[in-house]
UniProtKB/TrEMBL annotation:
Stated name of the protein: Periaxin-like
Highest rank taxon of the organism: Eukaryota
Length: 127
């Protein structure tokens, strides 16, 4: 079981209530100040904006027209015609016909055939 000092608890509670009291008082002062500002503040008239016609317009600058220089027209160059080269045609070379090689057939070796061994009598199956 914890023993708590009652004096400590009471001092903490009074400190908390004092803080709460100060906060409430400040909130009341702020509310009153807002009310006073709203009541005593005169309405400020909106400033009149000047009309656009009153703003002086600058004259558009005039630039002298510069004539485009005429470029001399040059004659189109004439390229000499290059004759097509005629390549001589060579006859197709004839390939000599090769002799067809005859491959002799290799005979298959005869394998010795064995007779099937006779099986012994059937063995009875074990249950």
């Amino acid at each position: 079981m914890l023993l708590v000092d009652m004096n400590l608890i009471i001092s903490m509670l009074t400190t908390f209530t004092e803080i709460q009291f100060v906060i409430n008082k400040q909130l009341a002062i702020q509310a009153e100040a807002r009310h006073l500002i709203e009541v005593t503040m005169p309405e400020i008239p909106k400033p009149e904006l000047p009309y656009l016609s009153k703003i002086p317009t600058l004259p558009k600058p005039e630039f002298p027209e510069i004539p485009k220089p005429e470029l001399p027209t040059l004659p189109k160059p004439v390229l000499p015609e290059i004759p097509k080269l005629e390549l001589p045609t060579f006859p197709k070379p004839e390939l000599p016909t090769l002799l067809k090689l005859e491959i002799s057939v290799i005979p298959k070796p005869k394998l010795q055939t064995f007779s099937k061994p006779e099986s012994p009598d059937q063995v009875p199956k074990h249950p």
